Amino acid sequence: MAEPLNFDYDKESDVLYVSLGRPRRAISREADGGVIVRFDLKTRKVVGFTIINFLRGLSARNRELRALVSGELTMSHR
After folding, report:
1. What is the dihedral of CA 60, 50, 67, 14, to 10 degrees?
2. ∠ CA(9), CA(12), CA(15), 5° rounding?
3. Which range among 18-22, 40-44, 55-59, 67-71 shows the weakest confidence by mean pLDDT?
4. Which residues contact residue 20 at a Cβ distance below 8 angstroms, ignoring those fewer than 6 apart?
5. Residue 46: in which H helix or E strand, if any?
6. Cα(72)–Cα(69) distance, rounded to whole angstroms?
7. What's the predicted TM-score (pTM) here?
8. Half-sphere exposure at residue 31, Cβ-oriented, CA atoms within 13 angstroms
């Protein structure tokens, strides 16, 4: 069965953390555009990712999506 996605948004830093299942120790690799991908130490499978400047990175034409995401994710902000 697929692991659930867990989201955590740090409003002050504008960083979105996404984990597959519970967060765990991982190897991190920086990808393009402020995305950091996390891999399981043993299996090397993706276990999560981090998006830096998450809301600032959304384009102006996606204002509705931006408002929706901001409203939903700020409930669990750090």
Report:
1. -80
2. 40
3. 67-71
4. 3, 4, 5, 6, 46, 47, 48
5. strand 46-52
6. 5
7. 0.69
8. 12
